[in-house]
Automatic annotation (TrEMBL):
GO terms for molecular function: ATP binding; DNA binding; kinase activity. The lineage of its organism: Bacteria, Bacillati, Bacillota, Clostridia, Eubacteriales. Gene3D superfamilies: 1.10.8.60, Homeodomain-like (1.10.10.60), P-loop containing nucleotide triphosphate hydrolases (3.40.50.300), PAS domain (3.30.450.20). It comes from the Bacteria. Keywords: Aromatic hydrocarbons catabolism, ATP-binding, DNA-binding, Kinase, Nucleotide-binding, Transcription, Transcription regulation, Transferase. InterPro entries: AAA+_ATPase, AAA_lid_NorR, HTH_TyrR, P-loop_NTPase, PAS, PAS-like_dom_sf, Sigma_54_int, Sigma_54_int_dom_ATP-bd_1. Residues 151-380 form the Sigma-54 factor interaction domain. This is HTH-type transcriptional regulatory protein TyrR. Transmembrane segments: none annotated. One of its GO terms (biological process) is regulation of DNA-templated transcription. It holds the Pfam family AAA_lid_14. The keyword Transcription regulation applies. Residues 18-72 form the PAS domain.
Length: 461
């Protein structure tokens, strides 16, 4: 025990704490705690390890840190550094198997001769990955529904997209975000606002396809008292006025009718709007961000979208890639959602080692929205603590069955294609014929032959 100079009274209190009490504290700590001995053998790990590694404490028991975890899973090995320096080391590290960045603080425990007896490490997610309930003891930063984690990822595609938005966020230039449904366009619009000079002003979002055209005008521009039958005798402020000084996000902008496009163009060009039933223009100091999953330029060619409005919206354009084009982000997103729903439903589930390759190989037609929904369904409906590969396959096959796909291939071709995808995705994830063989429960020689057949010549393990 560290020499802290406790009083006799407090030392007596510590000695009175039961093993059950101390174990309950450790087992329920959100921060991962793991202890290794001088030979890098695990002495203890609490259940928080499942969040970071997808492994239970039982699976990690008796594992050798250097020979079994370090070579293919960790970017930095801290054990040797701690034993050499005999000092506390704090490091941001990366666990490759789960694509997790973590912060680890490793503390050496010395014996009477000054040699390292144990290393006690605590590991947690980087601070910027937390969904804070309170910041500076003032206010809630973001709700669970708002923070869907849709821009989590380290792929080149998402980094390129964020790089553009970071540069333009400090300006008032209009931004057009393109991308398939479910890729996180609305989240990116909020990201731009949060990083802009208007961050302390309102952020107002409206889905142009979700409101009938007859109501959309009054929702956006408001109306004066008795402007139409059924209108309030007090009138109503529109979203543009409510957003004054801040940001207005128009989602699914491609759904606007041509007459409504004219009025939006007037807002952009002249910073003004006219409430329904009025003839007096009102000033509008807003930044406009738009998004669509349609090809706006093609709509212009088809005379369904005004060309002048297109070029005003298209000052800065960025495309949010679909999830299938950034498979390296899938595991990070899946783990994020797993943590969210474990907390929401008071569970402690984790993916088996066979699930990550399946996640990476699936085509995700519904993108991040589909991934989020699937993980929530797995947390609720899977049996036991471990989410297995057959759980994933069962739920994705249920969704696929509704698509009524027509297969124009014979049995052999279909089976060969399934085998090819399984091998490609497994090797992409494990990067080793030995690890892949263990996961698929086949011999390493067979795994090697499959890799040669479907991927490429693998270097000797």
């Amino acid at each position: 025990m560290a020499e802290l100079g406790y009083s006799e009274e407090y030392q007596t209190y510590l000695d009175s704490l039961t093993k059950e009490t101390l174990l309950k504290i450790l087992e329920n700590a959100y921060t991962e705690v793991f202890v290794t001995d001088a030979d890098d053998r695990y002495v203890y790990t609490n259940p928080a390890c499942m969040r970071h590694y997808g492994l239970t404490p039982e699976q990690m028991k008796n594992m050798n840190l250097q020979s079994e975890l370090r070579p293919e899973r960790w970017k930095i090995s801290l054990s040797g550094r701690v034993k050499k320096s005999k000092k506390v080391i704090i490091a941001e590290n990366k666990y490759y198997a789960m694509e997790q960045n973590v912060v680890t603080i490793s503390v050496p425990i010395l014996d009477e001769d000054g040699n390292v007896e144990m290393i006690v490490s605590t590991t947690q997610d980087p601070i910027n990955s937390y969904d804070f309930s309170i910041k500076n003891e003032v206010k809630t930063i973001v709700s669970e529904e708002e923070d869907s984690g849709e821009i989590i990822g380290s792929s080149k595609a998402i980094k390129r997209c964020l790089s553009i938005l970071q540069k333009v966020s400090k300006t008032d230039i209009n931004v057009l975000i393109l991308g398939e449904s479910g890729t996180g366009k609305s989240f990116l619009s909020k990201y731009v606002h949060t990083n802009s000079l208007r961050r302390d002003k309102p952020f107002i979002s409206i889905n142009c396809s979700a409101i009938p055209e007859t109501l959309l005008e009054s929702e956006l521009f408001g109306y004066v008292p008795h402007a139409f039958t059924g209108a309030s005798n007090k009138g109503k402020e529109g979203l543009i006025k409510i957003a004054n000084g801040g940001t207005l996000f128009l989602d699914e902008i491609g759904e606007l009718s041509l007459p409504m496009q004219v009025k939006i163009l007037d807002v952009i060009e002249n910073k003004r709007f006219i409430p329904v039933g009025s003839t007096t223009p009102e000033h509008a100091d807003i930044r406009i961000i738009t998004a669509t999953n349609k090809d706006l330029y093609q709509l212009v060619q088809d005379n369904k979208f005004r060309e002048d409005l297109y070029w005003r919206l298209n000052s800065i354009k960025t495309t949010l890639p679909p999830l299938r084009e950034r498979p390296e982000d899938i595991i990070s997103l899946a783990n994020y959602f797993l943590n969210v729903f474990n907390e929401k439903y008071k569970t402690n589930k984790y993916f088996s080692k066979k699930v990550p390759p399946l996640l990476c190989g699936y085509h995700w037609p519904g993108n991040i929205r589909q991934l989020r929904n699937l993980v929530e369904r797995l947390v609720i409906l899977s049996d036991g603590k471990v989410i297995e590969d057959y759980d994933f396959q069962r739920f994705t096959s249920e969704e696929e069955s509704g698509s009524k796909r027509v297969v124009n291939s014979d049995y052999e071709s279909v089976m060969e294609e399934a085998e090819r995808k399984l091998v490609e995705n497994s090797y992409l994830f494990y990067k080793s014929s030995r690890k892949m063989a263990e996961a698929l429960n086949i011999s390493q020689s067979k795994a090697y032959r499959l890799i040669r057949k479907y991927v490429y010549d693998e270097k000797e393990d």
